[in-house]
């Protein structure tokens, strides 16, 4: 492999996370719900991790609900609120939100051509029967950040009983989620997007975020032993939880320098490809995106063919979200921006992360133009 530019799909494990996990994959093994010393040691480790996650996300430890990842956190937020009224989400949410909302008969609110939620349309859709509004902090395909404060203000004004959920899965690595999502009642995160292990995440379930009354009622989706104050039953993934906390702490402590460094790499990558490849277009406003996101479209090129060719040339990239990869339908995010199907099918997502280097960018600047030219030449011969 010459370069890995698919950090939005998953990131390599940070050494801090690996180190924190090792004990819990070896000599330490307790079930935190038990009462003897082995169990208590595991509970202490989970409690310590809970405090780290709470400090990083700007909430109280008791407001952190550990889950098995971003998909579960999103499902818990949507399905846990759906029994209390209508649910709404933006049209560019991850499928974990879109499909949950769809399953309970909820509605979508459109975005503008830059990928930012249409606040007028949102205001029009709000009403006293709304129980949840879900608007992601950073989009997983195009990297655009959403004006969450304005969303919270609109929801508080029109339906003060409703909860605001934000999927911050793609945001933790790049922005201060404690500040930007500080007014949201429910916040989803997933460890493997910021150097933690796969299969572990959290949902912040916050009281006192400007909403009327206590924390919004959240009906459980998983029933059983009553862990996480009955909000999420199931034995804790102790190794995963301590790994997530270590990765989150390292991410937050180094975020400012990582954002500056990786932002420069991303700019060099995007500018270089736009200059080298005729008929290339950047999706969204660069200044409104997270630092690791580079999303381009190449006229006359089909995404899936490009991703396969790039892989054969040593570059790992993606056509869109990890889950949409391999699908023949164009991404719902790109069609929500108003792109036609052909344009939406010509996208390439190059996503950088905490360990991306100049060498990754150099490799991509060599490989992507060659691959695009090869596909265009083949199309010309076939025409
Ligand atoms: N939400 C967003 C924005 C994502 O990008 C992803 C994963 O790609 C998820 C949710 C799902 O997270 P997980 O892979 O932890 O289930």
Describe this structure in words.
This protein has 383 residues and is of the alpha/beta class. Helices cover 40% and strands 13% of the residues. The protein is built from twelve helices and twelve strands. It has a seven-stranded mixed β-sheet with strand order 2-8-7-6-5-3-4, sandwiched between helices. It has a three-stranded antiparallel β-sheet with strand order 9-10-12. A two-stranded parallel ribbon has the order 1-11. α8 crosses α12. It is globular. Residues 321-325 have low confidence and may be disordered. The protein binds pyridoxal-5'-phosphate. Pyridoxal-5'-phosphate binds next to α3.
Q: Helices and strands, in N-to-C order?
A: EHHEHEHEHEHEHEEHEEHEHHEH
The residue-averaged pLDDT reads 96
Give the biggest sheet. Answer: 7 strands, mixed
**What's the number of helices?**
12
Number of strands: 12
Give the strand content. 5-15%
- Taking pLDDT < 50 over at least 5 consecutive residues as the criterion, the unreliable ranges are 321-325
- The coarse overall form would be globular
Helix content: 40-55%
Spatial order of strands in the largest sheet = 2-8-7-6-5-3-4
Rg? 21 Å
Distinct ligands, ions and cofactors found in the model? pyridoxal-5'-phosphate
Instruction: Kindly name the structural category.
Output: alpha/beta
N- and C-termini, Cα separation:
33 Å
